[in-house]
User: Fold this.
Amino acid sequence: MMSKTNRTWIILLLLFLGPPLLAWYLYTQHPEWLNKTANKGILLSPPINLTKLSLMDTSQFQGKWLLMYIIPGDCDEICEQDRFLVQQVHKALGKEQSRVHRIVIKSSKLDTGLYIVDPWGNVIMHYPKNIIPRAVKDDMSRLLKASQIG
Assistant:
């Protein structure tokens, strides 16, 4: 039979060594858990500065978030549908929509699709054609909640 002192030492040992051992085990046996992200769009790393792209005069949008939709030329059916979805995402932001502007730009410097631009003019996220409105809204809501500017 174990004495009360020995039992106390074993409990203390498990309390202090158990969590680091469990963490080490999970870290070494499940590395796929480490690369999980919450964003649904494609995060651009490093971000692209909008002024370096020379797509437009950025001074009027300084300090605001942008939902920037890039089209290569004429707008086809998918493009029209995506533009409508971007408008719906903007409306779905509710009281936060005043912090976000929507623009459409014809350019071949970036891939066709939707881009999120932060208040400093950095293009930080991309959604290819056929955007999923819920994904964009979730990412924008998360960004606006974390940011106090714009």
User: Anything to note?
Assistant: The first strand starts at residue 42 and ends at 49. The chain has a mean pLDDT of 86. Residues 4-29 form the longest helix (26 residues).
